[in-house]
Amino acid sequence: MKMIMNKAIYILLLTLLGTLQTMADVSHSQQTRKVTGVVVDLNGEAMIGVNIVEKGTTNGTVTDIDGAFSLDVKPDAVLKITYIGYMDQEVTVVDGSPLRIMLREDSRQIEEVVIVGYGTQKKVTLTGSVSAISNQDLIKAPVSNISKAIAGRLPGVRVVDRGGNPGSDASVDIRGFGSPLILVDGIQQSGFQLDPNEIESISILKDAAASIYGVKAGNGVMLVTTKKGESGKAKITYNGSYGWQNFSSFPEVINALEYAESMNEDALNRGIAPVYTAEDIAKFRVGTEEGYRSYDWYDIITRPNAPQTQHNLNVSGGNESVSYFTSVGYVNQASQYDESGSGFERYNIRSNISAKIAKYLTAEAQLSGRIENRDFSEVSVGNVVQVIPIFSPWANDDNHEYFQRTTFGTNNAIRLNSATGYNRQKYKFFNGQFSLKYDVPFVEGLSAKLLFSYLGNLREAKTFSKEYNLYSYDRAADKYNITYTGNSPSSLTRRDDIGEQNFLQFRLDYNRTFAQKHTVSAFFAYEQREDLSNYVGAYRQFDIDALDQINAGRDLNKTNEGTESESANVSFIGRLSYDYLSKYMLNMTFREDGSAKFYQNNRWGFFPGVELAWRISEESFLKDNFPALSNLKLRLSYGKTGDDGVAAFQYITGYNYPGSATYIFGSNVIKSIVSKGLANEDFTWFTSEIFNAGIDASYKNGLLEASLDVFYRKRDGLLATRAASLPNTFGASLPQENLNSDDYRGFELTLGHSNQVRDFRYSVKGNMSLTRAKNRYIEQNDPINSFLYWRNNRSDRWNNIEYGYVCIGQFQNQDDINNWAVQDGAGNTTLLPGDLKFEDLNGDGVINDLDVQPMGRSNTPEIYYGIDLTVSWKGLDFSVLMQGATNYSRYMRDAAAYPLFNSGTSLKSLMDRWHRADPFDPNSEWIPGKYPSTYATGKTNNTRNSTFYNLDSYYFRVKNVELGYTLPKRWVNKAGMSNLRVYVSGNNVLTFDNLPYGDPEAASGTGFGYPSIKIWNLGVNITF
Q1: Are 462 and 424 in contact (CB under 8 A)?
Q2: What percent of the chain has pLDDT over 70?
Q3: Are 174 and 219 in contact (CB under 8 A)?
Q4: Residue 775's closest CA among 803, 790, 794, 788?
Q5: How far apart (Å, rounded) are the C-alpha atoms in residues 64 and 53?
Q6: Are strands 221-226 and 181-184 parallel, antiparallel or unpaired?
Q7: 3-class secondary-structure state, position 186
Q8: Which class for 217: exposed (0-12), middle (13-18), buried (19 or more C-beta within 10 A)?
Q9: Cβ neighbours around 35 below 10 Å, total
Q10: CA nearest 347: which of 311, 378, 398, 316?
Q11: How many CB atoms lie within 10 A of CB 411?
């Protein structure tokens, strides 16, 4: 009752306040006068759509096509003038004279900087192909891994989410080149397990801009910059959310009735007696009698709305001498499989401190760490969707403590889900960076910096397979009998992987502007890096599995193993940049890398890069005649990088110990020693050269924006052995050689529009990229004839060609079968109406291997695109990200394509098949369908690789959507807060594709991996 009274009083007060406001507005309208004017830019050009608002009110207007406006205001009013890309201005109304208001460009936008290799560049003078994303966009996606947060947001960055397993990475590449080099605050790291709340920005270097990183930069570079403290009072920020997960899609399977009918159809097509009688079919249709019930294993094994929660608390601030940023984050993502104990948990911590310890000396310490806990379920989608629906999980439906054998005799997904042990991993990571920077007082613009970084990581993997039993139930005796014992004996596998990285860098930086026209910057650095790794593993079986520790296992059949490795690199790096009036820009880089993996004659690699840019918009012939064209820039670049990602010391002859074989001498087991084979002293880096041409354009400082890049990458010296091209009588083991080569080419396009009308702001940005790859040369054995050369040669071919038979339809009747080329090897006697009909490529009347031809693309999209829409009005904000891909193929195999695969069940989609009108009459008429008639595991003719199951795929996703509301400051300030925002967000909320089932980003085949996840999230952001 008290709560109801409080709400009533609150509503009454709001009503009273609204009435008072209305009265005030009426009074205001009775004491106003008209003010007119025009708004122009620095060149005197009229500005359209500029917001004019009477300060302290919602009374406002916008300028028309001539830049003019008219507004009724109070006599002593102050006008606030705002426009995107220009500095806000306030004008006091003095008399009734028309106003002429001149707006200046916002220097903050002009001076916006982008993180590039070993430094920053102004966005307006950027010479390379670089894309960037800020923290505000990263935190919009309610996902546990930032690789999935960047999907669709950056041109040229392709993100393919192969599955939603808790905590899993998506596949990320730049321009289709492969996995990029990831650097966090300049230190190479792997994976994307970072808290987005501690990230300031991510920059993607796609062309010669990446050359300065030399080794392993050929696939592009991803630069992650974490937040730093700023001068001012301490700012405390909390960001927390709670979400509900569900599979975005899941294969639907047939029920018990449909299974029984399918089994009978299979028997009919094979010419044998039906498995189930008409009376059985009737009982399955009712579905209440024991033995005839239908069990939905998806509902049994999964749970709706699996939880996910994320929290971050950070503190930042500082003064003229010390600045700091400290962050603590936590993520917990549960599995969709019920009772599996699987899931993902991560703790992140970061502390970035900078202190001016002397007049010219600054010290920095950046400490970060994280702990990840992963529990993997023993259950797969295949376990769920292939279980025959007439099988109950339990030996007795009235007692859920005893599990029975199912489809494959030993497979019971719910049992695997709950009581067969665990597969657990713990990952511990630490990175400490310490640096000293000295600003040289006697040389303006020169500084020196010394940096040391230590990175350590430990992965502890532990798999405990516990013995379990499956049962049958004797109802008459009310007794449960063991019918199967799995994981016998119980066993434990333990593996610890330890990695360390020591990194030392000394650098000199110089930056100075001469005569306010010529800006010169230079950079030189020396780096050395050492990587150490080792692992130790152990395995034991158990007589008693009450204790999951290695020392509790028995000595019989125990094993242990371990290895260590070490690698080192030394680099000399340089850059020289020149900028004339932000009009002509030149950027030259080089990197000299040394690797211990190669023989001394090939140990060093030189990798240069050059970037040119010309801002045509700064030329007088454009600036004077087209002042609204705020930026028009041409870019051209060339860069070369190298890679030493090869097995080390192949230039040394000798032996490998231990070898793969073992020998017994008496009672002793002796490990073998095996020759390494031939050495190769000429073995060296494989190299990558990339050419890029681009154009950037902006109209009215962002009202319209466009960017286009065209690129070509050529790689040489890729690794291969000559084994395929040498006779099999050659007895020695061959080393790797730098033999193969390939190239990639494509383009990226970005378009954007931003605007503001009074309090209403919006922006629309779209990006699209296309990449194609070709094998220039592939080491292979010589073809026997011209036909085999046409079909099997992979040199000078696109590298994503898939081969198979071209399906030209399905046989409609027996005459169609009799009059077609022989394609079953038995005079077409095994074929039935509905079976697949293939093209006779060579016209010889026989469908065989000679009719195989190109039929599709690979499973990786060639075209990738994204559309980002944001809208805000006062305290409300809304954003939606749409992302999609096309130009790829998805091949459906095994249980995804064939009914009753491996004695299992069938997908619901396969029920749209050719079948007889009467399942008990082999002479009844055929009813057409999409798929061939039911034949367990697929008929040989229909299971050939063909275009029928190779789908030209596409998808379009509403990838991310968020609605937020920022409470008025006058409300939150009373509670001691400076900002309070609440929001709801979703990820993978809607998908459109052309697949019969499943996720469009899953791998080819069954697609039965852990499906992608749809998440709805509620969150709050509070700043004190």
Answers
A1: yes
A2: 93
A3: yes
A4: 794
A5: 15
A6: parallel
A7: coil
A8: buried
A9: 23
A10: 311
A11: 20
Q: Which two tokens stand for residue 336?
A: 């969709």
pLDDT at residue 927 tops 80: yes
β-strands 674-675, 655-656 pairing:
antiparallel
DSSP 779: -
Q: How far apart are CA 582 and CA 121, in angstroms?
A: 11
Largest CA distance in the chain: 113
Quick one: pLDDT band at residue 17, thresholds 50, 70, 90?
Answer: very low
Structure tokens at 423: 């597969």
Question: Torsion angle of alpha carbons 646, 647, 653, 654, nearest 10°?
Answer: 180
Give the phi and the psi of residue 108 in degrees, each rounded to 5: -65, -35
The reply to whether omega before 489 is within 30° of 0 (cis) is yes
- Which tokens go with 782? 């010589």
Closest to 373 in 3D by CA, of 145, 192, 162, 166: 166
At 819, the amino acid letter reads N
| pLDDT tens column, 348-386 | 999 999 999 999 999 999 999 999 999 987 777 777 788
Mean pLDDT lowest among 22-26, 140-144, 900-904: 22-26
577, 586 Cβ separation under 8 angstroms = yes
Answer for the pair 295, 312: CB distance below 8 angstroms, yes or no. Answer: no
- Name the token pair of 430: 């630490």
Asked if 715 contacts 633 with a C-beta cutoff of 8 angstroms, the reply is no
Q: In which band, very low, low, confident or very high, does the pLDDT at 227 lie, cut at 50, 70 and 90?
A: very high
- Tell me phi and psi for residue 939, to 5 degrees: -75, 145
Backbone dihedral region of 714: left (phi > 0), alpha (psi from -120 to 50 degrees) or beta? Answer: beta
Quote the CA–CA distance of 349 and 69 in Å, as a whole number. Answer: 53
The C-alpha angle 60, 64, 68, rounded to 5 degrees, equals 80
Q: How confident is the model at residue 102 (pLDDT cuts 50, 70, 90)?
A: confident
Q: Do strands 760-777 and 704-720 pair parallel, antiparallel, or not at all (unpaired)?
A: unpaired
* 635 vs 616: CA distance, rounded Å: 11
Q: What is the dihedral of CA 965, 971, 972, 976, to 10 degrees?
A: 180
User: What whole-number distance in Å separates Cα of residue 402 and Cα of residue 470?
Assistant: 7
Tokens coding 965? 């509301």
Exposed e or buried b for every residue in 830-860, given b needs 16+ CB within 10 A?
ebbbbbbbbbbeeeeeebbeebbbebbbbbb
229: left (phi over 0), alpha (psi -120 to 50) or beta: beta
Name residue, tokens 């400082």: 701
Place 415 in a pLDDT band, splitting at 50, 70 and 90.
low
**CB of 452 closer than 8 Å to CB of 503:** yes
Q: How far is CA 774 from the centre of its chain?
A: 24
Instruction: Report the Cα 39 to chain-centroid distance in Å.
Output: 46
Q: What angle do CA 971, 973, 975 make, to 5 degrees?
A: 85
The pair of structure tokens assigned to 822 is 């022989």
- CA-nearest of 671, 547, 531, 691 to 610 is 691
Report pTM.
0.86
Helix (H, G, I), strand (E, B) or coil at 903: helix
- Average predicted confidence (pLDDT) for the chain: 89
User: What's the length of the chain?
Assistant: 1024
Closest CA to 259 of 928, 912, 907, 923: 907
Q: What whole-number distance in Å separates Cα of residue 903 and Cα of residue 542?
A: 33
Mean pLDDT value across residues 491-516: 95
- In angstroms, rounded to a whole number, what is the distance separating the alpha carbons of residues 904 and 908? 13
HSE at residue 324, side-chain half, CA atoms within 13 A, is 13
Angle 278-286/256-270 helices, nearest 10 degrees?
A: 160
Kindly report the CA angle at 378 between 372 and 384, in degrees rounded to 5? Answer: 130
Encode 376-440 in three state secondary structure. ECCCCHHHHHCCCCCCCCEEECCEEEEEECCCCCCCCHHHHHHCCEEEEEEEEEEEEEEEEEEEC
What's the CA gap between 564 and 568, in Å, rounded? 14
Predicted confidence band of residue 480 (pLDDT cuts 50, 70, 90): very high
